[in-house]
Amino acid sequence: MKSDLETAMAELCLTYSKRQVEAALSRVTEEELSGELTFVVNAGMHALPVDILKGETFYFSEGNVDLSQENVKETVKELSKKAVKFLRSRVWTKIYIIPSGHPLLVTLATLVVYRVTRVNPIILYYVDGAYREVAIDVRHDVFGSS
Question: Is 121 helix (H, G, I), strand (E, B) or coil?
Fold first, then answer.
């Protein structure tokens, strides 16, 4: 009896040649399979070292964001919807947040990441000339629950 994977692969080979399927499969990188995400709250304000971008990278916002009283609600709704769509596109096992930009955006982005994925994000913050990680499992580390 064939597994679900074997059945799916056989169906692919009916549409594509075995060589095409193998070539496409070989292009899937470990990075894409890792489930790691670097979630940059606001890009463009400061250059980010490439070595801190782990897995896939998503930019919640870029440059100057219109947070005027007249536009703030619509702006954060649009940014949040884009993020939700991206976050639901696959399963994330480890998420790094770079908290750049306006505090409202940082707060909103962190909330969206957790509410959609239920993954406690690792915060990459800049101090003393380098990025540092802080990982806090609020339920375990703060409330003492398992």
Answer: coil
